[in-house]
């Protein structure tokens, strides 16, 4: 796939599908390692589906919040800087979500899990991994399209 033939709407969708897959894969891998539960490690691949449900964020379809923040940013101030808009939108949205969970004393809960684990240990590494992978996967496209 040539980067010059990728339209901006398709790139936007591709960025977010990649983010959701990598972010949720990272979270579930870290969870399995933390719980030392390697027997059901195949759940890591299902983390992508759990991201839609909002297992870690405790809000179904939470991924729409940073998506809309990025869309708003590229339509206003960050038009030529998509990677910056992506990074700021996910960091702001996930930080706000964590602060909301912390203020409601839900920061140690994961849907469907009996264990109590502070979610900051999952959010920060997963965001860093997602941002790094996004840059590595799309850096040529960002440079070619000037975004």
Task: Describe this structure as you would to a colleague.
This protein is mainly alpha-helical. The chain has 5 helices and no strands. It has helices at 8-34, 47-53, 64-75, 82-103, 120-145. The radius of gyration is 16 Å and the shape is globular. It starts with 7 loop residues before the first helix and ends with a helix.
Uncertain segments: none
Q: What class would the helix/strand composition place it in? A: mainly alpha
CA-atom Rg in angstroms: 16 Å
**Main beta sheet strand tally, sense and closure:** none
What is the share of helical residues?
Answer: 55-70%
What is the number of strand segments? 0
How many distinct helices? 5
| Strand residues, percent | under 5%
Keywords, please?
5 helices; single chain; mainly alpha; 147 residues
Short account of what is shown:
By secondary structure, the protein is mainly α. The chain has five helices and no strands.
Walk me through the topology.
Elements: H1 8-34, H2 47-53, H3 64-75, H4 82-103, H5 120-145
Helix pairs in contact: 1-2, 1-5, 3-4, 4-5
